[in-house]
C-alpha cells in the first residue's frame, strides 16, 4: 500500500512538471557595474517559457522601495520570450544589491532575480 501511495505522488509531481510553464532566464543577476549618479537605472531581465503551459506573472515584489519592476501585461506562451523591466533609483550613492521576488503560476511558483552595482558621484567637468 505504501509503495502505491509513493508511486502515485511521484506520478502527480511528474505531471505538474510536464504541464507547467517553466522560466529560463538569460541571467538571474544583472550587474550595473559602476554607474554615475542619475544615469539610466532601467534594465531588462529576458526569459523564455520552455514549459508546456502559459506563464502568468501575478506579482513582483522588490526588497526595497528604491527599485521597481514592471511585469509583462500578457501571459508568456510556451516557446515564447518575455521580459521584466526593472529600475533602480540611481540618485542613491554607493553599492547596492536588490532582490525581486516573482510570484507566478510557473513550475516554481516563486522565482528570485537580482540587481547589483555601484553608483558613483558624477564627474564634474572643469574648464
Plain-language structure description:
Strands 1-3-6-5 form a four-stranded antiparallel sheet, with no helix packed on it. The longest helix is centred in the N-terminal third of the chain and has 18 residues, at 2-19. The chain is 14% helix and 46% strand. It is mainly β and 127 residues long. It has one helix at residues 2-19; strands at 23-25, 29-36, 42-49, 57-62, 67-70, 81-88, 94-104, 110-120. Residues 2-9 have low confidence and may be disordered. The protein has one domain (21-120): Immunoglobulins (Immunoglobulin-like, Sandwich), CATH 2.60.40.10. The chain has one helix and eight strands; from the N terminus they run H-E-E-E-E-E-E-E-E.
Give the tags.
single chain, 127 residues, mainly beta, Immunoglobulin-like, 4-stranded antiparallel beta sheet, 4-stranded mixed beta sheet, 1 helix, disordered N terminus
Amount of beta strand: over 45%
CATH architecture: Sandwich
Query: In whole angstroms, how far apart are the ends?
Result: 85 Å
- Topology-level CATH name: Immunoglobulin-like
Largest sheet: 4 strands, antiparallel
> So how many helices?
1
| Uncertain ranges | 2-9
Give me the Rg, rounded. Answer: 19 Å
Shape: elongated
Order of H and E elements: HEEEEEEEE
Helix/strand-derived category reads: mainly beta
The oligomeric state is single chain
Instruction: Report the helical percentage.
Output: 10-25%
- CATH H-level superfamily: Immunoglobulins
Total domain count? 1
Strand tally, please?
A: 8
- Overall CATH class: Mainly Beta
Across the major sheet, the strand order is: 1-3-6-5
- The pLDDT mean sits at 89
